[in-house]
Amino acid sequence: MRWSDGSLTAPEWERAVAKAVAAISEGSLRKVVLALELNATAAADIDGRVLLSRLAGRYPECYTFACDGLLGATPELLIRRTGGSLHSVVLAGTMPRGGSPEADRALGTALLASSKDRDEHSYAVEDVRAALQPLCADLRIDEQPFLLRLPNLQHLATQVYGELAGADVASHSALALAAALHPTAAICGTPADKAMDLIRELEGMDRGRYSGPVGWVDGRGNGEWGIALRCGLLSGRNARLFAGCGIVAESNPPAEVAEAQTKFWPMRYALEG
Questions:
Q1: Domain residue ranges of the chain, discontinuous segments joined by +
Q2: Strands, E, within the chain: which ranges?
Q3: How far apart are CA 1 and CA 9, in angstroms?
Q4: Which residues are registered as beta bridge partners of 239?
Q5: What tens digit of pLDDT does each residue of 243-255 get?
Q6: Each residue of 81-122: pLDDT tens digit?
Q7: Is the pTM of this model over 0.90?
Q8: Nearest alpha carbon to residue 192 among 127, 256, 117
Q9: 142: phi then psi, degrees, rounded to nearest 5
Q10: Active-site positions?
Q11: CATH says 2-272 is which class?
């Protein structure tokens, strides 16, 4: 497997993160999510079935998906609708896993106490609240985030449960709800319009379907949609991998580069075994 940079090298992306921090400090926005790409080329055509098997085995807590060449293992549930009941899991704020139980607990404790990560997470939670509150007769959001631990990372996570208002059950399918939520502050930023403008200015690439909703909906409007993260786009011998990080005023550009590189690990493992 040969690896090469995408539209930006790691140092160039670090400078883009620094520009994002400066823009946030000026007060034009509170958070922006910047993505980085990494390219891989194999000696022969890549068999997506092998990658899916590896991802499902290594990341059972995630949603393994494949959609017209885009495949990955995402930890984030955008929305699930079962009848009139809704469920979403908000993820934002990240820390690596530790090499020992003690180190792992210390990193988790630091993540829960981090004002930077708590701010990043709260913006995503409030974004989901604003989208779902008008549609729900009852909306329940955990007051405090918990730690979602994956093999390579741990995230701040918040559970969201709701009951659609009676008139909205028939008119709001799982797909319509996904459309109402997308793009969340967890993959775009806040305010969304200003964050998208900055993303277009700084990322230097077309995300394609990366960070979009991926899932299913049935004829009754029930369904389940995740967010296409920790993924790659396959085309013959080539794979285009994506990783993103939420940038806030307290973000440290070198640390964000390290986090993005860690988020490539699931797909690198899938490709290299």
A1: 2-272
A2: 2-5, 31-41, 63-67, 70-74, 77-82, 85-96, 136-141, 146-149, 153-164, 189-190, 213-217, 223-227, 231-235, 238-247
A3: 18
A4: 40, 234
A5: 999 999 999 999 9
A6: 999 999 999 999 999 999 999 999 999 999 999 999 999 999
A7: yes
A8: 127
A9: -55, 140
A10: 31, 76
A11: alpha beta
